[in-house]
Automatic annotation (TrEMBL):
Pfam families the record matches: p450 (PF00067)
Originating species: Colletotrichum melonis
Signal peptide residue numbers: none
Protein name as it appears in the record: Cytochrome P450
Domain of life: Eukaryota
GO MF terms, alphabetically ordered: heme binding; iron ion binding; monooxygenase activity; oxidoreductase activity, acting on paired donors, with incorporation or reduction of molecular oxygen
Length: 129
């Protein structure tokens, strides 16, 4: 048995949100196709993440609109870094603590991908609190 938000009725309530996000994606694809080839994987990733964020948190984060020339976004970059570096944080918890204590500029210099991730976390924390 599914909880109410994931029921058929809950999914039908999400349809206007999905249509709105698809329209935004379509407009951007129409604009970008004039510039050349489009990598569809980041576009679909931005769309699904945007819909899930809207559904789960009530706001979508603007991932489709974030970068004018492609579908990259700070959130998806950080998510990739977090998923690839997860084992480091599990096996070396001191590294996470040290990374949080150091200035982000220094972390960016030492390990740019971790610096991106930490800077996004700090931005998210400032927006929420």
């Amino acid at each position: 048995m599914l909880s109410t938000p994931f029921s058929r009725a809950g999914a039908l309530k999400l349809e206007p949100v999905i249509r709105q996000k698809l329209t935004a994606l379509d407009h951007k694809i129409q604009r970008l196709q004039k510039e050349g080839d489009i990598d569809i994987y980041p576009a679909m990733r931005a769309l699904t993440t945007k819909v899930i964020m809207q559904f789960a948190f009530g706001r979508s984060g603007g991932m489709i609109e974030e970068n004018e020339h492609d579908f990259t976004s700070r959130f998806s970059d950080s998510l990739s870094v977090a998923s690839h570096g997860f084992h480091t944080m599990i096996y070396y918890p001191l590294a996470r603590h040290i990374g949080n204590c150091l200035p982000i500029l220094l972390v960016n210099f030492m390990k740019p991908d971790v610096g991106k991730h930490l800077s996004l976390l700090k931005v998210c924390c400032f927006q929420c609190y």
